[in-house]
User: What shape does this take?
Amino acid sequence: TAGITQAPTSQILAAGRSMTLRCTQDMRHNAMYWYRQDLGLGLRLIHYSNTAGTTGKGEVPDGYSVSRANTDDFPLTLASAVPSQTSVYFCASSEGQGNQPQHFGDGTRLSIL
Amino acid sequence: GQNIDQPTEMTATEGAIVQINCTYQTSGFNGLFWYQQHAGEAPTFLSYNVLDGLEEKGRFSSFLSRSKGYSYLLLKELQMKDSASYLCAVTDSNYQLIWGAGTKLIIKP
Assistant: This one.
C-alpha cells in the first residue's frame, strides 16, 4: 500500500543519547514535514523540506536536525535527547507546499528517560 | 501572533448532527483544512476550503467565512466511529500550516 512509513513505532531512550527517526514515502511527494504532538497542544512543525536537497526550520526546531538527500527519505535526528522531547512524532508529505493536503505516517512514540 | 481556536471537547448523540467551530487569526490566509484523528492514530484529511461557502462531502460539510476568520465542520447522522479528534489548520501567507489543538468529539449511543 502506498503511503508513508515511519520507524520505529515506539522507543524508550536514555537522556543524552542520540536517535534517528526514519520516514520514507513512496508517493513521490515533493514536500515532507516532521511534527511533534503533545497532549493539549496542536501539531507543531519541527522541520520541513519543500523539495529534495532543501530543508527549513519550523516552529520548534531546537534539538533536532533533518536531511533530505532524496525524494523518498526524510530522517529526523535527536543529537542528545532530553526529557522534554518525549512526544509522538509524525512525518507527513504533500505534493506541494501550503494548499495541498498532507498525508501522515503512523507516528513514533518516543519516551526520553 | 498566529492563533487557531477550537473547543477542547464536545459530546453528541448517535444519529444527531454536530457542528465544530474554528476561529483563526493568522498572518495571511491561503486555505483551511479539517483533519480527523482517531485516538492513537495519524491525522487523515477531511476537507479543504479556500473560498467562502459550504463544501459538502457525504455526511461531512465544511464552511468558511474569510471575513470573519471562521470555519465550521458539520457532521450529520453521527456514527460511533465518528468519535475522534477533529483538527483545524490554516495555511498562512508563507504557505506554512498552522494547527489548532483539536476538538475531541465523544459520541454517545
The longest strand of chain A covers residues 87-94. The radius of gyration of chain A is 13 Å. Residues 9 and 108 of chain A are 5 Å apart (CA to CA). Chain A has a mean pLDDT of 94.
